[in-house]
Amino acid sequence: MKVKSILVSQPEPQAGTNPYTQLADKHKVKVDFRPFIEVVGVPAADFRKDKVSPADHKAFIFTSRNAIDHFFRMCEEMRVAINPDWKYFCVSEAVAFYLQKFVPYRKRKIYPGTGNLAGLIPTLKKQRGEHFMLPTSDILNPDIPELLEKGNIKWTRATMYHTVASDLSDLSDVKYDILVFFSPEGIRSLLKNFPDFKQENTRIAAFGNTTQQAIAENSLRLDIEVPAPKFTSMSQALDAYIEEANKGK
Fold first, then answer.
1. Mean pLDDT taken over the chain
2. Which domains occur in the chain, in start order?
3. Phi-psi sector, 219: left (phi>0), alpha (psi -120 to 50), beta
4. Cβ neighbours of residue 187 under 8 Å, at least 6 residues apart?
5. Which helix (H) or strand (E) covers residue 77, if one does?
6. Minimal CA–CA distance to 42: which of 182, 186, 164?
7. In the predicted model, is pLDDT for residue 93 greater than 60?
8. Cα gap 100→16, rounded to integer Å
9. Which pTM value belongs to this model?
10. Contact (CB, 8 A) for 80 and 53
11. Angle at alpha carbon of residue 70, lines to 68 and 58, rounded to 5°
12. Cα dist. 14→5, 20, 35, 68 in Å?
């Protein structure tokens, strides 16, 4: 089956060149973006019930930009002053760079990882005796606590935001040739919004083990799996799939 349309279940990338616009131009396909999930902040009054406070820590682990946004929001709502001696440990350069929205970017206080938490563990281990705070959503990838525990890292989870399904009623249907997902919550949102969804000829592309597991648990068919031996990014996998599917178009 040829591919003419793709729906990516994420916000549209900021203006400028991105792999998906290049994909659309190369193969003359339509690429739309629509977030299937939304992030809602936990009010400070509710957060206080967990008896956890940024003021009680000096080192913080950030796994996403959302975690950074809600950490500093919570500090503001709780009237916790930003300590210039705090240390920030980020899973990637991109997440670390995002911190400059809130604090001066000082290399001696900001420690970027290589793209995932596993790559950050050796750096965390060097902070002997440190007790880290991990700002998270209410949904936490089980690999994260497993890695931290295995690395003998002392840490406290701080649930500062919730991940909820977006209202997709205006889509009326999801008749795209390929649907692209990056989290289990995206799959759950699809089925919550469209409980009668039938996959039929729609191809599903998924990034990550937990997303792929959610697809299997909901009896859907996984057509494009990332990462894979040949592909580390979703755009690479889509490029190769469309190239094959649209032969002789």
1. 92
2. 40-163 (3.40.50.10090)
3. left
4. 181, 206, 211, 214, 215, 218, 220
5. helix 65-77
6. 164
7. yes
8. 21
9. 0.78
10. yes
11. 60
12. 20, 12, 14, 19
pLDDT value of residue 149: 96
Backbone φ and ψ for 146, nearest 5 degrees, come out as -65, -45
Per-position b or e across 115-128, b if 16+ CB within 10 A of its CB = eebeebbeebeebe
Question: From CA 87, how far away is CA 99, in angstroms rounded?
Answer: 11
DSSP 206-218: EESHHHHHHHHHT
- Best CA proximity match to 90, nearest among 117, 122, 126: 117
What angle in degrees, to the nearest 10, is found between the helix axes of 234-245 and 19-27?
10
Asked if residues 224 and 202 have their Cβ atoms less than 8 Å apart, the reply is no
Element (H, E) at 148: helix 143-150
Residue 59 carries which DSSP code? E
Contacts of residue 236, defined as CB under 8 A and 6 or more positions apart, other chains included, come to 226, 230
Is 57 in contact with 127 (CB distance < 8 Å)?
Answer: no
Cα–chain-centroid distance for residue 151? 23
